[in-house]
Amino acid sequence: MNSIQVNGISKAYGKVQAVQDIHLDIQSGELFGLIGPDGAGKTTLFRILATLLLADAGDATVAGWDVVRDFRQIRRHLGYMPGRFSLYQDLTVEENLRFFATIFGTSIEENYDLIKDIYQQIEPFRKRRAGQLSGGMKQKLALSCALIHAPRVLFLDEPTTGVDAVSRQEFWEMLQRLKAKNITILVSTPYMDEAQLCDRIGLIRQGRILSVAPPDELTAAYPHPLFEVGAQNRYQLLQDLREYSPTRSVFPFGEFLHLSTRHPVDPMDIREFLAARQHREVVVRPTEATVEDCFMNL
Ligand SMILES: Nc1ncnc2c1ncn2[C@@H]1O[C@H](COP(=O)(O)OP(=O)(O)OP(=O)(O)O)[C@@H](O)[C@H]1O
């Protein structure tokens, strides 16, 4: 069953075309990632699907309901964790949760099972004001609040931005457990490494979806030879590789550079080129494409 269907959605703010002709088909129980840099249009799309903003063109349904006509039903059955912090800073952890439960006509007790895993981790701090929680704890509270009315569909707009690596990891584990409860999850992130944890991802840039696929399929279809290259002087390495004639693109990737070439190249040839330019501690090896390589390629 389709849980989220988007047909040709476009939206401009004055002259800025924030999203353009977006089509998406997200299945019930799917964990779908919207991956793209700042300003790509992710928040705009979320706001349209969450019935908070009207599109200029196109239509969309969430859990079978139309985002314009049936906005009330969508609001009842949707959990939305907006990018910017959505909690009441002056209320305690427990008061925040109770507030969200009350506005949806439910109670913490009624749906405790759904949030138990997540909420238990912050329950020792239930008397603390939300404004005084760490980033990771705020995120867990915001997720608990978004889930307390047992939504069928969950929208998470950049939930891990500004959160440390350990909390990010934990957060994705929580999402996997929610998915197992058959909640459809649409999550956006600027972190390409998180894409690997989704069932399918849509790459979005400048308001347009460039590609939709399971992450493994996307990376397996990467069409160019790709190398991981390292040397002592990374800055100079980048400059020099830009002048290497087979280079298609080269960009920093962790402690290495990712070099994609126009045609197959023997790693020895790259080493010789770099040796001639006095590079030391040179490492060159073929590597598998990541989602980031695919994004750069598109
Ligand atoms: N209210 C607004 N008025 C004018 N322009 C806007 C408004 N909201 C967003 N934009 C512009 O629309 C484009 C898409 O923004 P959007 O917030 O949807 O992107 P995003 O992918 O969520 O990025 P970010 O993570 O930076 O929010 C950007 O160019 C942004 O500057």
Describe this structure in words.
The protein is an alpha/beta fold and 298 residues long. It contains 10 helices and 14 strands. 32% of the residues lie in helices and 29% in strands. A 6-stranded mixed β-sheet has the order 6-7-8-3-9-10, with helices on both faces. The longest helix has 15 residues, at 165-179. It has helices spanning 42-49, 71-77, 93-103, 112-119, 135-147, 165-179, 215-220, 234-242, 267-276, 291-297, and strands spanning 2-13, 16-27, 31-35, 57-62, 65-66, 78-81, 153-157, 184-189, 200-205, 208-213, 226-230, 247-253, 256-261, 283-286. The model has no long low-confidence stretch (mean pLDDT 92). It is globular, with a radius of gyration of 22 Å. It folds into 2 domains: 2-220, 3-Layer(aba) Sandwich (Rossmann fold), CATH 3.40.50; 226-297, Alpha-Beta Plaits (2-Layer Sandwich), CATH 3.30.70. Helix 3 (93-103) packs parallel to helix 5 (135-147) and helix 4 (112-119) packs antiparallel against helix 5.
